[in-house]
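Researcher: Last one for today. Full complex below.
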Amino acid sequence: MNQIAEIDKYPHMISVRVRNFEVDSQGIVHNAVYLNYCEIGRVEYVRTLGIQLLPTGIFDNQFKINVKRNEINYESPAYLDDLLNVHTRISYIKNSSFCFDHIIMRPSDRTLIITQKSVQVNLNLKTGRPERLPDDIRKIIMNFDKSCYEI
Amino acid sequence: MNQIAEIDKYPHMISVRVRNFEVDSQGIVHNAVYLNYCEIGRVEYVRTLGIQLLPTGIFDNQFKINVKRNEINYESPAYLDDLLNVHTRISYIKNSSFCFDHIIMRPSDRTLIITQKSVQVNLNLKTGRPERLPDDIRKIIMNFDKSCYEI
Amino acid sequence: MNQIAEIDKYPHMISVRVRNFEVDSQGIVHNAVYLNYCEIGRVEYVRTLGIQLLPTGIFDNQFKINVKRNEINYESPAYLDDLLNVHTRISYIKNSSFCFDHIIMRPSDRTLIITQKSVQVNLNLKTGRPERLPDDIRKIIMNFDKSCYEI
Amino acid sequence: MNQIAEIDKYPHMISVRVRNFEVDSQGIVHNAVYLNYCEIGRVEYVRTLGIQLLPTGIFDNQFKINVKRNEINYESPAYLDDLLNVHTRISYIKNSSFCFDHIIMRPSDRTLIITQKSVQVNLNLKTGRPERLPDDIRKIIMNFDKSCYEI
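Model: Here's the assembly. Have a good evening.
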């Protein structure tokens, strides 16, 4: 599958365990829960860059990002107690917006569970309006995420 | 069952529908979800008293309550798509603390699902320390909740 | 805005109240929670068609649908205690798949909160493979949802 | 504080990170979420004993446990992105029931967050009725959990 072939482009990976409160009556992970897994991936990706998440939900260097759009394709179900790998990259950076790509795999049988794209926008903290992603953050991201490109 | 006999003492009731993201792999409501149902009951009870919940999570007349303790007994499982009744009362008021009692029933077969007690404490907004529940709020509560008593 | 103009095409609407456990530290609804709201919309839409959701998570007339893809655009934030309207329609039916469209509005100020598309696939219960959506269900849907078309 | 003094009696500990979808509008962990954290503690405790959680939600050696009662005391709030330690022990075993005790601490400042007791009952899979906890499981538990006693 193409997405699995592309996994080398994802510089960040964390593992999550499927919990009893995350599955539905069919014993499979509820469709909304994957957005939580991907968000965990994003926060840990950003932590790896050396940027801290503050108690207010804002990253420490004035990096206030908001989700503008999510797209998720459900490829195979994941089950209770599965150990899943959440792979994360930033695929592109526009002016104020940029895009996290996620792949979730079950490594025990190399099954692709979902693919996700999450478009973020950087907001000016005073005006609440979109603002160009600062150059120093672009540099940090593109240094870490070799396949990321600016549009 | 005693709790069902006591249901007349509960002056407030709302209904909730069990959703797919609230059940576990056995198709029964997850044990933590009942605390959400009871909280919905409390917020709607307080709304009935004419007190508004603000976007900050504080009620509008300086009524800043925090959960100090929860006790919950699981009597029978509830299932996906069940329509449940959440019965709410305030059983007692101490100085700064007071206690919400909840009963959740499935009315279709008059089954008792859970009983819950939730001890709240009123906090001073500046100091963050417990503070006597104001007399005007006591009056509103005891007028609405005839079996509530002050200790 | 176009989506608001199109709201007349949505034959089903339910209201949900934003709860304390659904907002994040900024007091706004968490991005994953809207998928729950839309799912509530879908289940109630299907109930309106006279089709029952069973405790197993399968609809009663062998209508076993699974989410294949979700797309969601976040237009404006919703806040704690907001009363939101979830508008639902089925926009098209292919062979085994079909698409729910959702609009969530805050009616108090006519603000568009999100738009969502959720592609479903009808599965054969024995094989677990996609199967043409039965004609009787197509008829029920297209009778209820006047702007739905078959592709 | 007594509970912190007792922490040596807890033979099992896991860490959890507080996520954005687990806090409320005040940026503190929602009261129901701690029940999830404690459940994660229980599942990992049982895994440490060498007992597997199956996709059906039943442990692999016919150990079908259900939560009968939860008690939770909220001592201090935990905040977004906190790293918390969930300490777990089984404090006593009766005939069919037994009790998990949990302490959640924030190790960065040695703050006690919550204490919890969760009474479980072992069910016969065919009848669904309480059944004496088997001797082999008692032996495994009491070998691992030195302060656990039988009543």
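Chain B has three helices and six strands. The mean pLDDT of chain B is 91.
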